[in-house]
Amino acid sequence: MADEGEDLFGGGFDDFGDEEVAEQNPWAEEEELGEGLDQQQQELAGEQQVEILEQGPGQAAPAAQQQRITTRYLTKYEKARVLGTRALQISMNAPVMVEVGTETDPLEIAYKELREKKIPFIIRRYLPDNSYEDWSLSELIIPER
């Protein structure tokens, strides 16, 4: 058996006195910062400030809507993602954008919505220069199954 005060794995317990723990209070700095925030909030209560951030090198930027580079056709990968996501939403009782009739399969309802271009999704296509283009599904040419 291990002796009292000795770890089973060969190391001893580190016995720190209460004095050492009390001196190292990591929350003391945050308490002091919190008091300063209250004063700043009171000063800014009367005026609204808007900060415009410049785009950093790692952030994407939207491409101009008129100067689109990517194809107008919905790719098979985008189609699969849109149909799967929309079918999941429909199965979770999201409102349906088309007349359902007797159809109960969420995937078939999603196909019907896609054919009629009624799915309220926006496709974001990223470009190599880290910018992107947003396409509404109503703007895209959708290939048949």
UniProtKB/TrEMBL annotation:
Main location: nucleus
InterPro entries: DNA-dir_RNA_polK_14-18kDa_CS, Pol_omega/Rpo6/RPB6, RPB6, RPB6/omega-like_sf, Rpo6/Rpb6
Transferase among keywords: no
GO cellular component: RNA polymerase I complex; RNA polymerase II, core complex; RNA polymerase III complex
Annotated spans, Disordered: 1-44
Alphabetically ordered keywords of this record: DNA-directed RNA polymerase, Nucleus, Transcription
PROSITE patterns membership: RNA_POL_K_14KD (PS01111)
Comp. bias (Acidic residues): 15-35
Superkingdom per UniProt: Eukaryota
MF terms (GO), sorted A to Z: DNA binding; DNA-directed RNA polymerase activity
Gene3D superfamilies named among the record's database cross-references: 3.90.940.10
GO biological process terms held by the UniProt record: transcription by RNA polymerase I; transcription by RNA polymerase II; tRNA transcription by RNA polymerase III
Subcellular localization, as worded in the UniProt entry: Nucleus
HAMAP family: RNApol_arch_Rpo6
Family: Belongs to the archaeal Rpo6/eukaryotic RPB6 RNA polymerase subunit family.
Protein name stated in the entry: Uncharacterized protein
Source species of the chain: Chlorella ohadii
